[in-house]
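Input record, target 12 of the design panel.
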């Protein structure tokens, strides 16, 4: 049985969390989601230099309380940044004790187990461990080695970085649920709570995820359209203008290369809204020329984004369901209540 309600006592169910989007989801956005009865994650990513400042700000922004002397907010890390990131973060995790720590994208097989052990030791087991996976095999390996508190099951429709080869959420989530249930029963392991991610933008998607075995959902793209997101207006406008995400977003490495983001392990790519950069590359434009044009677009401010623009706009395939700018707290309440309404209808 899921321990979501007891682990995060200020939250309402089903749990709505905001993804720890690097550089975009900082303390203000994360705090507003927690204040609305969800769980906010600060996207620290690969650089701990702002971690203390973000957690200090969160303490003053949070209006809800957790239990066990924990801060009712989470922190997300990209493990490919390695041991320096872990060692820089451990004293701050011990000091602030965020209620959850999200681990993603290791570059070495043993990193997830090592990080899990070190964080549990530093926080006295008070910070719950969330681990993101995108395949059934990864789920089995992670549960066997780490016994995470939460398994974030991310399908292929997710925006930003994810596995270049993985299934959609509607088939991945129930298979993970079946396999992990059997594994935990056979090995007498505690079954982690499953949280769905990838292409979810409204209450209908969250309701479907609950029916497939999840106790809640993580949204990223939907929260790009809130004033608390650390984004330019041009980026937000491109999100609001996009539709039909199955054909107007794609996953790959082109935008990473042009942005100079070259640290991700080979199996990951970024899903974003397609624009001139992508279409010109497909038409045969050299990467050298594409880089020149991309660098020029960076000088154009908000005009650098959009269909005729060239700048990176990471977003998921559910982007067409994002229609307006709304405060993060309102988004959290709206999608949760939409899910509750849909689930009640299913029971009739």
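The sequence produced for target 12 reads:
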């Amino acid at each position: 049985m899921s321990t979501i309600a007891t682990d995060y006592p200020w939250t309402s169910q089903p749990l709505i969390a905001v993804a720890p989007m690097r550089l975009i989801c900082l303390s203000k956005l994360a705090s507003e989601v927690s204040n609305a009865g969800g769980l906010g994650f600060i996207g620290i990513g690969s650089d701990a230099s702002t971690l203390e400042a973000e957690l200090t700000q969160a303490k003053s922004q949070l209006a809800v309380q957790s239990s066990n002397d924990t801060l009712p907010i989470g922190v997300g890390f990209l493990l490919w940044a390695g041991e320096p990131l872990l060692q820089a973060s451990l004293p701050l995790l011990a000091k602030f004790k965020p209620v959850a720590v999200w681990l993603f994208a290791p570059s070495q097989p043993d990193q997830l187990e090592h990080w899990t052990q070190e964080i549990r030791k530093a926080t006295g087991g008070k910070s719950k461990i969330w681990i993101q996976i995108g395949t059934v095999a990864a789920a089995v390996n992670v549960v066997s080695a780490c016994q995470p508190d939460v398994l974030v099951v991310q399908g292929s429709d997710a925006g930003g970085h994810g596995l270049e080869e993985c299934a959609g959420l509607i088939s991945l989530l129930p298979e993970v649920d079946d396999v992990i249930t059997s594994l935990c029963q056979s090995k007498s392991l505690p079954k982690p709570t499953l949280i769905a991610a990838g292409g979810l933008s409204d209450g209908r998607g969250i309701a479907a995820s609950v029916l497939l075995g999840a106790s809640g959902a993580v949204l990223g793209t939907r929260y790009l359209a809130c004033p608390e997101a650390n984004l330019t207006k041009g980026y937000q406008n491109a999100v609001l203008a996009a539709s039909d995400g199955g054909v107007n977003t794609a996953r790959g490495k082109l935008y990473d290369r042009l942005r100079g983001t070259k640290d991700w392990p080979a199996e990951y790519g970024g899903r974003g809204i397609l624009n001139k950069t992508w279409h010109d590359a497909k038409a045969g434009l050299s990467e050298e020329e594409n880089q020149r044009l991309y660098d020029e677009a960076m000088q154009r401010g908000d005009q650098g984004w959009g269909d005729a623009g060239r700048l990176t706009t990471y977003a998921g395939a559910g982007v067409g369901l994002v229609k307006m700018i709304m405060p993060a707290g309102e988004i959290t309440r709206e999608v949760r209540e939409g899910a509750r309404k849909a689930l009640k209808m299913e029971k009739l």
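Residues 150 and 185 are 17 Å apart (CA to CA).
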